[in-house]
Amino acid sequence: MAMNETDARELRELGLRAVEHLSDLLNLAKVRCSEEKYERVRRGVGLSIGRIQTEVLDVICEKYPHIEDRF
Q: What gap in Å lies between CA 26 and CA 4, rounded to an integer?
């Protein structure tokens, strides 16, 4: 089944929400983790956000460029 615009909007919102949660995770790790552990978390969060952007949000934007992207 092909992705329609309604699906694309919902997927986009979920992807953006995932990025927000990962950002919250990073902020919490900065306060609660050692510098070494924080750096590991920071790298993991950065890689995860990058994958969500390139493999989810960009794919949606390619098919539906008129759906606004907040990045």
A: 33
37 Cβ contact partners less than 8 Å away, ≥ 6 residues apart: 29
pLDDT tens by residue, the chain, 71 residues: 689 999 999 999 999 999 999 999 999 999 999 999 999 999 999 999 999 999 999 999 999 999 875 54
Nearest-CA neighbor of 60 among 21, 18, 1, 7?
Answer: 7
Q: Is 64 helix (H, G, I), strand (E, B) or coil?
A: coil
Residues making up the chain, counted from first to last: 71
